[in-house]
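A reminder from the course coordinator: this example appears on the midterm review sheet, so study it carefully.

Given structure:
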């Protein structure tokens, strides 16, 4: 999928700068941002998200159905039942112990085997499980959008999302199913 396009979103006569919109889409602080401190102020980022939420989500879903931008994962990801903690993606298989979480609903895994990397549900599967995926989105998706996502295991046995820039380093599950990277892998590659 191509890199998220930067757009100016206007809401209630308030316009956020392009670098803020880009951050809410990707979770990356743009190098050209004149006010990097803004992104470390959680309350400010939440305010920015609330200000453009409707427009940004509508555009995102139209462009990338079955996925959500960083701002959604950061501020709206469902919580575990009876908990203040976000409900991470369900583990489908593979080795390792779940430990903590990162962005986009991914968890980190310890004591993983590179021969048997952890696999987790895709964006689309997560959204469907939580009854967030709309019928219109689901009609635009295919079976590949619901395939599990293989994590990458580093030399220390820690499994996490693929952060490499080299397509040859893509997790084996994706290469085996046609060579295309999943939305999550593309998003994480852009973040590195």
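Designed residues:
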């Amino acid at each position: 999928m191509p890199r998220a396009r930067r757009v100016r979103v206007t809401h209630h006569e308030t316009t956020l700068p392009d670098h803020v919109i880009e951050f809410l889409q990707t979770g990356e602080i743009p190098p050209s941002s004149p006010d990097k401190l803004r992104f470390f102020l959680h309350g400010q980022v939440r305010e920015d998200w609330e200000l453009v939420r409707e427009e940004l989500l509508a555009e995102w879903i139209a462009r990338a159905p079955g996925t959500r931008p960083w701002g959604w994962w950061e501020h709206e990801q469902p919580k575990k039942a009876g908990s203040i903690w976000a409900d991470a993606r369900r583990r489908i298989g593979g080795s390792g112990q779940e430990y903590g979480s990162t962005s986009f609903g991914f968890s980190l895994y310890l004591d993983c085997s590179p021969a048997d990397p952890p696999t987790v549900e895709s964006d689309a599967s997560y959204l469907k499980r939580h009854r967030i995926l709309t019928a219109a989105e689901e009609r635009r998706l295919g079976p590949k959008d619901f395939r599990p996502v293989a994590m990458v295991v580093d030399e220390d046995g820690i499994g996490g999302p693929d952060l490499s820039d080299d397509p040859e380093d893509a997790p084996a599950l994706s290469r085996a199913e046609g060579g295309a990277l999943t939305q999550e892998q593309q998003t994480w590659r852009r973040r590195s």
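Residues 91-191 form one domain. The helical segments are 18-26, 42-63, 70-75, 123-129, 135-140, 172-176, 183-191.
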